[in-house]
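REQUEST ID: PR-0412
SUBMITTED BY: lab tech R.K.
PRIORITY: routine
TASK: structure prediction, single protein chain
INPUT:
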Amino acid sequence: HPSIKSDPILPRHCRMQWVKVLGGVVGAAALLGLGIILGHFAIPKGANVPAPSVSQDLDLEILETVMQQLEASRIRENLRELSREPHLASSPRDEALVQLLLQRWQDPESGLDAAEAPAYEVLLSFPSQEQPNHVAVVSPTGSVVFSCRQSEQNLTGEQVGPDVVPPYAAYAPPGTPQGLLVYANRGTEEDFMNLQTQGIKLEGTIALTRYGGAGRGAKAVNAAKYGVAGVLVYTDPADINDGQSSANETFPNSWCLPPSGVERGSYYEYFGDPLTPYLPANPSSFRLDPDAAPGFPPIPAQPIGFDDAKSLLCNLQGPVAPAAWQGALGCDYRLGPGFRSDGDFPADSQVNVSVHNRRELRNSSNVLGIIRGAVEPDRYVLYGNHRDSWVHGAVDPSSGTAVLLELSRVLGTLLKKGTWRPRRSIVFASWGAEEFGLIGSTEFTEEFFSKLQERTVAYINVDISVFANATLRAQGTPPVQSVIFAAAKQVQIPAPSPVGLSIYDNWIRYSNRSSPAYGVVPSLGSLGAGSDYAPFIHFLGISSMDIAYTYDRSKTSARIYPTYHTAFDTFGYVDKFVDPGFSSHQAVARTAGSVLLRLSDSLFLPLNVSDYGETLRSFLQAAQQHLGGLLEQHSISLGRLVTAVEKFEAAAKALEQHRSALQKGSPDPLQVRMLNDQLMLLERTFLNPRAFPEERYYSHVLWAPRTSSVATFPGLANACSRAMNTSLGSEAWAEVRRQLSILVVALEGAAATLRPVADL
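STATUS: complete
OUTPUT:
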């Protein structure tokens, strides 16, 4: 899932004036420059630039050269520099890293054709320096009998300082609610319903919840529905440390989260700038009223460490929590409300949550580096990662940026020497303000919506490049499966593992599935909204992927690497515990670099549309098995959907045969271009911007959020789930019919896109 400190120096009125000036002058100039670059690739061609060597197809020698020149030691040094200081979005250090990227991409020896840093004026959220957020236990007489830590323990000398933002829930509103404490497990709606069913009074309480199960902001939304006044969130060692919780078992003695560690994060419900939905956040854009804009948590929220959570939770009274709600804090978890009389706090003590967050308009920059394509400069392969972190952000996101810089260095060097130029254009991107809700990437897709939809071949995302060093993990839409597999077969597993074993062979040992077409293959995960691929796949319908190295799931139950979004995610943490030697970083660089070159340089785009047929068939079978009987009871037939899937499968097979025939001959360039456009544009056919009016940006009818437990078409599954207990002829059943029609039309449109272009 995917950084600067707050700006404490300027008074607010000065800060706002600075934002307006920079937004009006620098932002306008940068965006104008970006428009020129992306629109026309108007790149100066100096006399000292050698003529490029252009191959008609992927040059395997160039590919191997790139693989060999990607150096683990350089990735390590990149990471050391990137994570040297905290770099919260819009902070001075974040802007310094913008300049570092520009310097690298404008280097005369290893730079790219062009680089720009357009800025957007976006709404961010920061804790107050004058009034720090505070959580305390207050006795009936009003005295404070216990206070939670306001910062993490300084274990390595890197957890304190003016640039280390204290733990907070970004976008949580200010307020000072006080009430009896209840334990609400993961803060899902079902959890609060369970408490209510047990007769536990929730009105006016403070709910202690643990990370996982529901999104950060959803915990506050769910709590507010039941009258809860404030929310606390902590990371249970059962969920992140495999139960380890003592100081000698955790960082800096192991990779486990120490007791004072607190996960920061955005509690905003949507992605993109909160005030400019569907519009780029330029200074002149229309903005919503901040006080009326949707998506912010309705009640104050604050994250705390599990050491403080233990003091609160292990003193609760009330019924014992269900077995599934228990954790690893060394006591029986009880539900409350309130503390027991024989505990550490006076009877009837309450918890006070004081939140003083403020929202501010800030300038946040994307950095774009461009290599102009030699043959098809109007076809773009995008490769990106965000730059901002919550604190030092060595794993998240700098492990990805370190790989990005090394890959662009190797390609830039070949480019400047005249050894290579890609067939299609490559756009490297360093997105701003991702941690606040994928803001930089979303604003970019809003500003260049039409251009990107018309011209983008694929988007490669490498955010956290190394969670751990066991195996590759890839997520993506079905057409990119084959190119990821091809790249993974080419790259050797990181040392000191068995020599000669490929990343593909290793991956299949850890995570696999049975494919009707290929037999046993590695499992390719689907894309949610955890990183910057989200606006590209859900909003623009661009084939996308996310590539990383990760842990052995059989050896840990950690939901993510333990120091995620804390001040303990440092260079030393990566160097000692995550990837000593940086061989896994190098393996990701080679795999992602191979994918990039295959997409940019192959004569025929290496996108396999037949693999979508396998997904559609799987979704159809799940719908027939789990929803078919219910639909029949309401006289709804899946017959048209069955036919639509069959049409798609036939069209995809015919297109693959057409590609094979062209590959065997000497195809006309226009024939190649027409076929490639069919491959590129297939993903767009699954978009319907009116399919999910309750969702923002989600238009893809196959990958929209699915709340139903049935692994099938999300719109149909969600509609059936809502209609299940309603009467015949209700609006809910009408929505089921609408979603079915939307699906059929999308699949028929996809099949039509794959048929011969002259077949009208």
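NOTES: The first strand starts at residue 114 and ends at 116.
REVIEWED BY: pending
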